[in-house]
Amino acid sequence: MPGLYFEELVEGEVYDHPMTRTVTEMDNVLFTSLTMNPQPLHLDEEFAKTTIHGHRLVNSLFTMALVGGMIVYDLTYGTTLGNLGYEKVEFPNPVFHGDTIRASSTILRKRESKSRPDAGIVWFEHRGINQRDEVVCLCERAGMMMKRPAEA
Questions:
Q1: What is the pLDDT of residues 10-23, one digit of tens each?
Q2: What residues contact 75, with CB distance under 8 A and at least 6 apart?
Q3: CATH says 13-146 is which class?
Q4: Belongs to which family (predicted)?
Q5: Please, which residues bridge with residue 15 across strands?
């Protein structure tokens, strides 16, 4: 199992995740439509031409979900007990069709669970970065992580 246990997550450690993904028009239109978001900034090229960006933006919730998925294999695959919540979410730069996104994570802090002796809470910062090295998504979240099981 590639995910890390609570004990293996070190405060201040930075993880540059190796997966990258080029965002397509299909990703944006499908995600926006599946989530029933009628915002023309994501769906209507002619409308988007009249905005400050000049063309459609990728739905920011897709961007956050993409970054959230990119971190799983390295950090939480099979070792998380659940996401406890997001404390901060920012989108400092837009994502456009054709942008390639990569992710980086920092372990902000951690503590043992007060209610579960087999778990701890870890606060993560995840960053989505485009091919121009611009941060496009920044979020801080808390997750309940498994402790390493006792050896049999």
A1: 999 999 999 999 99
A2: 3, 4, 9, 15, 105, 124
A3: alpha beta
A4: Belongs to the enoyl-CoA hydratase/isomerase family.
A5: 105
